[in-house]
Amino acid sequence: MHNRLWIIGLALLGIFAAPALANFQVSGTFLYEDLPIDINGFQSPHPSRPVRLVDVKVIDNTTQATLATGSTDLNGSFSFNVTDSQVRNVAILAVAQSSSIPNLDHYVTQWGSSQVHAYQGILVPSHNPSADIDMGTVTMRYRAGAEGFNLYDAALDAADFIASMEGGARPTGCRIRFTLDVSPDQAYYSGGVVYMGGNYG
């Protein structure tokens, strides 16, 4: 009897000592500022367009560890659950790639780099893991993060157009590299990659 009580006591101690897991929901909408253009150049106003079908990452902003990954829909909105057990600084990022979206393989990187373009939508310091995060609507601005997602969105339009001509299947893979600083008026294709300078972007 004494041994049985001792075993039960150890089991209870393990239960109470273990960190409690909490599921919280993240939600919000990402938009980007678009610059319409015609033969006379860029036009105003600049409409906000949805950041469609990109990965959304929830990260520990201190360690950069990924806590969960979801994706935006065709309206730029996202909503998914995160399992966590720590109070930490939490950031939500839009990432210009589609690794979590079936049958889509697009991404945008910086010129001369393999780093995928990303944009931080919100930072929540000392987040309680039992509290949901509603980011609201975040709009990426021209020359402040929008270009990579504008290019991604244009590539998505092109892929959907090709799919409409080829029986519904999007082309496999689209790689775009861009810059705002180096040779801004360059635009060319080489080795399966589209290179876009800042003005073209």
Write the topology of this structure:
Elements: H1 2-17, E1 22-33, E2 37-38, E3 41-42, E4 48-50, E5 55-60, E6 66-71, E7 77-84, E8 88-95, E9 106-110, E10 118-127, E11 133-140, H2 146-165, E12 174-178, E13 187-190, E14 193-196
Parallel strand pairs: 1-11, 9-12, 12-14
Antiparallel strand pairs: 1-4, 1-7, 2-3, 5-6, 5-8, 8-10, 13-14
The percent range for strand residues is: 35-45%
Please give the count of helices.
2
Number of strands: 14
Q: Work out the radius of gyration.
A: 22 Å
Main sheet overview = 4 strands, mixed
Average predicted local confidence, pLDDT: 81
Termini separation: 75 Å
Shape, principal axes of CA atoms: globular
As residue ranges, the low-confidence spans are 12-18
Order of helices and strands: HEEEEEEEEEEEHEEE
Category by helix and strand content: alpha+beta
Give helix % range.
10-25%
Describe the fold and architecture.
With 201 residues, this protein is of the alpha+beta class. The protein is built from two helices and 14 strands. It has helices spanning 2-17, 146-165; strands spanning 22-33, 37-38, 41-42, 48-50, 55-60, 66-71, 77-84, 88-95, 106-110, 118-127, 133-140, 174-178, 187-190, 193-196. The strands form four sheets. Strands 1, 4, 7 and 11 form a four-stranded mixed β-sheet that branches. Strands 6-5-8-10 form a four-stranded antiparallel β-sheet, with no helix packed on it. Strands 9-12-14-13 form a four-stranded mixed β-sheet, with helices on one face. The radius of gyration is 22 Å and the shape is globular. The model is unreliable at 12-18 (pLDDT under 50).
